[in-house]
Amino acid sequence: MDRNLALEFVRVTEAAAIASSYLVGAGDKIAADQAAVTAMRSAFNSIDFDGEVVIGEGEMDEAPMLYIGEKVGSGKGLKVDIACDPLEGTTITAKGGPEAIAVIAAGEKGTLLKAPDMYMDKIAVGPGARGAIDITKSATWNLREVAKALKKDVQDMMVMILDRDRHAEIIKEVRAAGARITLISDGDVSSVVATSYGDAGIDMMLGIGGAPEGVIAAAALQCLGGDMQGKLIFEDDEQKARAVRMGITDTNKIYELNDLAKGNVMFVATGVTRGSLLQGVRLIGGGAHTHSIVMRAETGTVRTIHARHQFDRKPRYGW
Ligand code: VTB
Questions:
Q1: DSSP 3-state assignment of 297?
Q2: Which of 260, 284, 300 is the endpoint of a domain?
Q3: Are the C-beta atoms of residues 73 and 80 closer than 8 Å to each other?
Q4: Residues 61 and 191 in one domain
Q5: Does residue 219 form part of some domain?
Q6: d(CA 120, ligand 1 centre) in Å
C-alpha cells in the first residue's frame, strides 16, 4: 500500500484531534464527536485516494457523515478501505480524562473486517506473547501462558480491563490468579496498542469492548507484531440478524488477528487528551501542537510525529 498515504492520513487524524480538543472538558460528548467527524471528513476529502468507509460512525440511516459505505477522498488514486473512529473516547473528552485519540486504520480492499457496531470479546497481547493466547480458554489459562511466554510470573502481569459491571467475574478471576489490573473507563484502542508499544507496562487486554474498536486496534497490532483474538457478542437476536445482514456468516467465529486486519494495513492516531501512548493536543494561541503515531504493517516502521500548526497559514476544519 502506498506509503505516502500513511503520512497524508496523519493530517486527517490531526484535524479531527484539533477540532475535538476545543471541547475537552465541555461535558458534551456528542458535540466533541461531531467536531471530530466533520474535521476528519473534510480532511479526508482533500486527499487524492479512492476510499470507502468500512467502519465508521454507523450505518447510513443513523450517521450523516463517515457512515459505512461512504466514499471518502477525491476518488482519484488508490482504492482503500477505511476504518475510522474520529474520536475514540467521546466520554473521556467530555470529562477531560486521559487516552482519547482520533484514529484511522486503512488497507487495501477486503483487508479490514467489516465489523458491525456491537460488542466484541477481546484478548490482546504484545509481540513477546504472540501465539500464547486462546480466547476459548479461561482468563487464568491465558494469564499463565502469556506470563510463561513473557518469562514473568503471573503476579508480574498487568492486565487492562474496561471498568464495566459486565466484567465483574473476569476481574474476580484475574485477581484470584494473582495478576494486577488497570481498570479503564473507556479507550480500549489505546490499551490494546499499549500491549505492543510504548512504556505503559500493559501485558494483556481482556474483556468486552466495541467490535469496531477491535478491528482498528488489530491493524495496529498487525504493524507492531502483537496478537489478538475476538468474538462478536450479540445482546439480542436483532443484533445477530444485523450482523448477518452486514455479511457475518458464522456468528460464533473466533476471529484471529489476520481475520480482523490482514496484509499491508496502516494505523494512524493523534492524541486528543493526554495518554500513555500520545500527548494530547496543546492549544498555543493561533495554533496547536499535536502528537501522532503512524505505522505500516508492510515494513513495521513506526513513526511518531510532533507537529506545530499555525492556523493562519493552513486550512481549518471547523475550529
Ligand atoms: C469500549 C471503549 C470505547 O466503547 O470499546 C466501549 O474502549 C464499549 O462500549 O472507548 P460500552 O461503553 O458500552 O462498554 C467506547 O467507550 C467507545 O464508545
A1: coil
A2: 260
A3: yes
A4: no
A5: yes
A6: 10
Half-sphere exposure of 73 (CA within 13 A, CB side): 20
Give the position, in ligand 1's atom list, of the atom nearest the Cα of 189: 7
Residue to mutate, 37, 55, 170, 188, ligand 1, most ligand atoms under 8 Å from C-beta: 188
Q: Is the pLDDT of residue 2 over 80?
A: no
User: In the numeric block, which cell numbers belong to residue 145?
Assistant: 501462558
> What domain range includes position 91?
3-111+265-310
pLDDT digits (tens, 9 = 90+) for 204-247: 999 999 999 999 999 999 999 999 999 999 999 999 999 999 89
Q: Is the pTM of this model over 0.70?
A: yes
CA distances from 15 to 78, 92, 307 (A): 22, 18, 12
* Inside any domain, residue 319: no
Provide the domain count of the chain: 2
What is the C-alpha separation between 138 and 141, in angstroms, rounded?
5
At 315, is the pLDDT very low, low, confident or very high (cuts 50, 70, 90)?
A: confident
Task: Supply 116's cell numbers.
Answer: 458491525
| CB of 86 sitting under 6 A from ligand 1 | no
Q: Which three cell numbers stand for residue 61?
A: 440511516
